[in-house]
Specification:
By secondary structure, the protein is of the alpha+beta class. It has three domains: 100 residues, DnaJ domain (Helix Hairpins, Orthogonal Bundle); 79 residues, HSP40/DNAj peptide-binding domain (Sandwich), CATH 2.60.260; 92 residues, Urease metallochaperone UreE, N-terminal domain (HSP40/DNAj peptide-binding domain), CATH 2.60.260. 27% of the residues lie in helices and 29% in strands. It is built from eleven helices and 19 strands. It has a four-stranded mixed sheet with strand order 12-13-19-16. A hairpin with a 2-residue loop joins strand 12 and strand 13. Helix 2 packs antiparallel against helix 3. The chain is flat and about 105 Å long.
Length: 368
Amino acid sequence: MAKRDYYEVLGVPKNASKDDIKKAYRKLAIQYHPDKNPGNKAAEDKFKEATEAYEILGDDQRKAAYDQFGFAGVEGMSGGQDFSQTFRGFEDIFGDFSSVFDTFFGGGGRRSSSGGVRQGANLRYDIEIPFKDAVFGTKVEIQYTRNDSCPTCKGTGAEGGSGKKVCPVCQGSGQVRHSQGFFSVASTCHNCHGEGYIIEKPCHDCGGSGTQRKRQKIMVTIPAGVENGKRVVIPRQGDAGPGGPGDLYVFLRIKPHEFFERQDLDLYCAVPISITQAALGAEIHVSTLDGKTLKVKIPPGTPNGKLLRIRDEGVPSGGRRGSFWIKLMVQIPVKLSRRGRELLEELAKTEGENDSPKPIPLSEMSEQ
């Protein structure tokens, strides 16, 4: 099968910068790496093809020869030779190469910022809270199970008096490198599971893990104004680990309210009024979300759907509050008393009725 042009392989133009070439190769290498595509011969071939292309185009001298003479100019520079120079560049291309593949292939916990010892895993807890509590804030007690430090061995995993020794397989690095043809990949050491050491005499209570399952209760502070789907992070309340505990992420779902809705920091509710209140104007009393009673003035001639704004009665956030919007819904009576009907008929005769109304602009409807 004829070779493809190296620029075509990486999907870059001939005037691509060295950084663009590196980025293109990185993307392909991650996509087609054999560890991500086990048993996929086509993916392995594409990985090798991309690596060969990068070996040439990523080197200024080889790239110049290829640009001038094509494949003939770089014959013998790739394909079956020692690729160690290319793969020494992997760390430069991927940063921490092993961490990239940890993303794809798993690996529990996190590395601590101080070194290679793993921290415990982060935990997630989902909770549903009432609408009012989300607006004004609250405290909620939750219960969950986590891996806590073993009290017998104090988290070391070793029986009292015994200790740890450097893993003879990885020599304390926590990783082993496997060669596959012309490339090599670092993976977590199977002997020490990435810790870099092994326990000679495991703790009889935790079996050497250094942790035990524990049911825990904690109080979670829900801040005022929190939105649906947000999370509250509680540091160091996740699983315990040699490098310290992970964090607990509490994800919030907000239960809808029967009467109130929210948009940003504003609260909305709909209030029914009679046709006489709408026509003549009136004062009504409206309850707010936090239980206060507000006296609200309805102006004469209020149309159906009119919005009234009450400032500083909305959602509190950052020392301020949004507005409270009241949507006035004019209720048409379904049943009328005889006297009520007589009065409305008299009103119709007095004010007159238009039996051929003309349409009004939709823009006027949206302004109401």
